[in-house]
Amino acid sequence: MAEAVIKTLCPRIPARTALLFVALAVLIFAPAILRAQTDCLACHSDQDMKNAAGHNISVDGQTFAASIHGVLKCGDCHTDIKEYPHPDKIAPVQCSTCHADQAAKLVGSVHADGKDHPCTSCHGDAHAIFPKNDPKSAVYPLNVPRTCGQCHGNDGMAKKHGLASVYPMYVDSIHGFALSKEGLLVAANCQSCHGSHHILSHTDPQSATYKANIPKTCGSCHAKIDMDYEGGAHGKAIAAGKFKAPVCTDCHTAHAILQPTEAAFRMQSTPICGSCHKDKLSTYRDTFHSQLGSLGGYVETARCWDCHGAHEILPASDPRSPIAPQNLVATCGRCHKGANSSFVKYQPHANARDRKLNPALYFVRLFMNLLLAGTLTFFVIHTILWLVRARYDQIRKKSAEGEKNA
Ligand code: HEC
Ligand code: HEC
Ligand code: HEC
Ligand code: HEC
Ligand code: HEC
Ligand code: HEC
Ligand code: HEC
Ligand code: HEC
Ligand code: HEC
Ligand code: HEC
Ligand code: HEC
Q: 114-123: long-range contacts at Cβ-Cβ below 8 A with a sequence spacing of 24 or more?
């Protein structure tokens, strides 16, 4: 290869001689190029080298040379070293002199005032930094969760800052599983949802994890679902600033996302829909579908979203809604083969207290209640009269006996 290049550049010099010149040039200039490194490494390559405080200050020259910064001289970062022996106290390295963009983004983020070096807390050993697409990098997609997890999987740290310890939850989630077990680079890692340098608290309206921004954040990968969601009642409510409506994480959580076909997810209709629609949950609980579901163990039955859909949820008044009267035969028919218009008269939310919604049930319940009250009242009066009568008989008997004895 080198021979071919030389041959094209200087066709008159024999290739072997040319190679010899190149080798000679390298031998002459290499020490000058490497001197800065070797000067420092002459001392710092000693693996057991310690500073006055007992902290190991050795540098692995080979790893450093292979790292992204291997092209730099030690002094490019350790700028205050001008002569030997150098002073004991050396100023901290400013990564910002070369990476102003990342440094500016970190300022004002939640990690701005990290106790350790603000950059190496995520990028790892300062002398072993690799490009982000290199599997050896601490910020390679498959390594990001572990990197963030050093702190966010630490219960002590979480408690101190009033944060949830999210790393263990994430590892067991569908995204964590896809990333760590399947090595799926496109699965969401911490950085996909939070960003890298400009991470903000979810209470900040600028944050990717602020409630109103979550559908777009998840939608950057789950685009079709985001479109469905935004066309539904919940998405429209959020867009209109009604924050009582759910976003993706209200139903799926942020870090403990389950596969929705799993029994553990399907059994959660209470937290998923019922925590907000309490009235509909309690009426659903009175029906066949729910009672089957609570028999213990897992029973396949109709959950809220089997009838309502999960993302494009629409009110019954919308003709596209699966619960619009004209669509019920199809909706119920998914599970009830041969469902017809009389079958779908069965009311999944029969509410006997609601006269407007369920007039027949309302009057039946009213009648049954009146009947019950009437019967009870009759028996209470009956019992009281009975007792009075019994006492009266007793007194009369006693006085009759008294008269007899006297
Ligand atoms: C003659 C040996 C020698 C050479 C050459 C040398 N150092 Fe040092 N260096 C030391 C010693 C000894 C210490 C420990 C000082 C102390 O704390 O007692 C030290 C400490 C340091 C520290 C501070 C470590 C700490 O305590 O946090 C840095 C950074 C450092 N050297 C970088 C360099 C760089 C960069 C070069 C090359 C430009 C270099 N050194 C060349 C001997 C050397
Ligand atoms: C990309 C910038 C960069 C380069 C290049 C670099 N260093 Fe460092 N070095 C750092 C940072 C960051 C630290 C952590 C302490 C600090 O913040 O200053 C550090 C710390 C050190 C320490 C203290 C021991 C330790 O591990 O904490 C020594 C010694 C040292 N460097 C020597 C070297 C030597 C020798 C070279 C060249 C072979 C070199 N450095 C090249 C950034 C760099
Ligand atoms: C909270 C963790 C964290 C901190 C702190 C951090 N980084 Fe990063 N950095 C990352 C992640 C994650 C990536 C990968 C981003 C990606 O894949 O797009 C990254 C990528 C980079 C890149 C590659 C280019 C880019 O922006 O994607 C550079 C350069 C960089 N960081 C420098 C720095 C510097 C300099 C600092 C300190 C001022 C710093 N980082 C602090 C997490 C961090
Ligand atoms: C003297 C300038 C200089 C300093 C100081 C410096 N870097 Fe770099 N850094 C570079 C250069 C040059 C590259 C290679 C740029 C490229 O390939 O685009 C680089 C690349 C990187 C990358 C890989 C970018 C990628 O594409 O994934 C990271 C991460 C990084 N630096 C982090 C740091 C951190 C952290 C510090 C402080 C400890 C630091 N740098 C200090 C010059 C510097
Ligand atoms: C699929 C998107 C997504 C992924 C992946 C993700 N997060 Fe989050 N994270 C969020 C959202 C959204 C919030 C906002 C609060 C909420 O909904 O729970 C959040 C909140 C947080 C919080 C604040 C928790 C609290 O108690 O207030 C921390 C810390 C955090 N995430 C760290 C991480 C770390 C570390 C990882 C990787 C191990 C990660 N996140 C992965 C979306 C994600
Ligand atoms: C060196 C430890 C450390 C590392 C590594 C780290 N963090 Fe943090 N992080 C913290 C601390 C400490 C806080 C709390 C800061 C505060 O109280 O304002 C925090 C706060 C957060 C928050 C804000 C929580 C909220 O809503 O208030 C998020 C989100 C977050 N980190 C995500 C990440 C992600 C993503 C990574 C990896 C790319 C990461 N962190 C790496 C220490 C760390
Ligand atoms: C970086 C892209 C990305 C982002 C951002 C993302 N996801 Fe995912 N998600 C994926 C991939 C890829 C899978 C498929 C994993 C698999 O099947 O193994 C997945 C799987 C899922 C699943 C399981 C789907 C199934 O059929 O089993 C759910 C639920 C989910 N994500 C919800 C969310 C939510 C909620 C958010 C936002 C808080 C989010 N995702 C953000 C890429 C992403
Ligand atoms: C009101 C609760 C709710 C909201 C809000 C919600 N989901 Fe879902 N999601 C569900 C339910 C329930 C399922 C299960 C559907 C099924 O099994 O038929 C599901 C299923 C999924 C799946 C698996 C694939 C599929 O279509 O079955 C993914 C991925 C997903 N959701 C992502 C998201 C994203 C991204 C958002 C935000 C844009 C979001 N979800 C908003 C409840 C919700
Ligand atoms: C975080 C609370 C919350 C959760 C969880 C939730 N919803 Fe809603 N839902 C709302 C709010 C608020 C509205 C009203 C939106 C509006 O004002 O238009 C709504 C509207 C609806 C509507 C339209 C009816 C109407 O009156 O406009 C249906 C149907 C519905 N939700 C079903 C569901 C189902 C099914 C689930 C579970 C898959 C669910 N919801 C989960 C809060 C929630
Ligand atoms: C077997 C199918 C089915 C199941 C399961 C079901 N629903 Fe319904 N839901 C309907 C039908 C049909 C209607 C419209 C008639 C009515 O209001 O009773 C409705 C109405 C509603 C409405 C009012 C919609 C409007 O436009 O006014 C909400 C909100 C609702 N359901 C929430 C839920 C929740 C929450 C669950 C789970 C706890 C659930 N549903 C379970 C079929 C179902
Ligand atoms: C996801 C599947 C599913 C959907 C959708 C569904 N059901 Fe059911 N339903 C069941 C299961 C399972 C049972 C109990 C097993 C059985 O008896 O067939 C049941 C039982 C019933 C029963 C008890 C009597 C019977 O026939 O067994 C009625 C009535 C009923 N459903 C009505 C409805 C109506 C009305 C709808 C539409 C609004 C509907 N269901 C939608 C799964 C579903």
A: 117/92, 117/93, 119/95, 121/151, 122/147, 122/148, 122/196
